Amino acid sequence: MGAVPGLADTAGPLGDHNGTEPHAVLKAPIPFFGGKSRLAPLVWPRFGDVASYVEPFAGSLAVLLARPHAPQLETVNDRDCYLANFWRALQTCPDLVAYHADWPCNETDLHARHAWLCEQHQFRDRMLEDPEYFDAKIAGWWVWGISQWIGGGWCERPEWRGRAGAYRAPRGIHRDAVARTPADLCRYFGALAGRLRHVRVCCGDWARVCKPSPMTKPGVTGVFLDPPYAGDRYVVYGQDSMFLSHEVREWAIHNGDDPQFRIALCGQQGEHEMPASWTCVRWKRNGGYSNGAARSRAQADRERERCWFSPHCLNV
């Protein structure tokens, strides 16, 4: 069958704290603004091999996919129906998702599919009401488009127009390392499906998966909190809220002293006033695709990335 495209080739030997076999680190298939792939190697040493892992703002799942331990109970959630649908569909029928995602980059098709996807109102309702529902065609078209769309608004409103990234390096599923051939894409999606086989994918408000008693019933629980940043000048999240970041911070502080929780809260410098018992770590995210003044602002924001770890995280 050959090597699986999308496997991280610079992760080094990864294993859990119990001496079991290392687990492959998969690269996320989605070019997500604000993705946390660079932060993941700082998170897992502080979480350790937790019995339960919860990610209320799923995004590209870069942190979950970088887990070096054998998966245990894992729950992810996102209010973006298209995003949650992609992960659900990938779990069950990766080959069918790959079939619909395997299409050349084409700006005319990009805008046509964007308009069609925006009009799938019944799909959104079913995603929120049925925890097992998914649509493989929507999943394939969505990941095909987001991997070449530049700017905000993908699948939000049909009148929005982004730019197709025809003049920069391919990203997402269009990377050469992932989709040299249709068979490569199928193998990559199959590897992702295997990793996500037992992950619970929820679609709704973040608080639904953050009820302390059920969360910690299996044992020590790692919670990775990556809400939309307060005051972020970029409209990049389909379900954004200027107040959400503050609500998430209050939840983190309220539960941070519980020894059953190991919590990581993402934000920017000065965004969160955390107790002295929390540890603040500085890191730098990947750069964006903007130009001129916007690019300068984005570069400055990269330097402001912070992650706060709760008192019962492991010492590193």
Summarize the structure.
The protein has helices spanning 40-47, 62-65, 81-92, 94-101, 107-118, 121-129, 136-146, 176-179, 182-195, 212-216, 244-255, 292-302, and strands at residues 52-55, 73-77, 149-150, 163-164, 200-202, 221-225, 261-268, 279-282, 305-309. The protein is of the alpha/beta class and 316 residues long.
Provide a descriptive summary of the structure in words:
The protein is α/β, with parallel strands linked by helices and 316 residues long. The chain has two domains: 1-9 and 22-79 and 204-316, Vaccinia Virus protein VP39 (Rossmann fold), CATH 3.40.50.150; 92-199, no CATH class. It contains twelve helices and nine strands. A seven-stranded mixed sheet has the order 5-2-1-6-7-9-8, with helices on both faces. The protein has a two-stranded antiparallel ribbon with strand order 3-4. β6 (221-225), α11 and β7 (261-268) form a beta-alpha-beta unit. α3 crosses α6 (121-129), α4 (94-101) packs across α7 (136-146) and α5 crosses α7. The longest helix is centred in the middle third of the chain and has 14 residues, at 182-195. The model is unreliable at 9-22 and 233-240 (pLDDT under 50).
Walk me through the topology.
Blueprint: H1 40-47, E1 52-55, H2 62-65, E2 73-77, H3 81-92, H4 94-101, H5 107-118, H6 121-129, H7 136-146, E3 149-150, E4 163-164, H8 176-179, H9 182-195, E5 200-202, H10 212-216, E6 221-225, H11 244-255, E7 261-268, E8 279-282, H12 292-302, E9 305-309
Parallel strand pairs: 1-2, 1-6, 2-5, 6-7
Antiparallel strand pairs: 3-4, 7-9, 8-9
Helix pairs in contact: 3-6, 3-7, 4-7, 4-9, 5-7
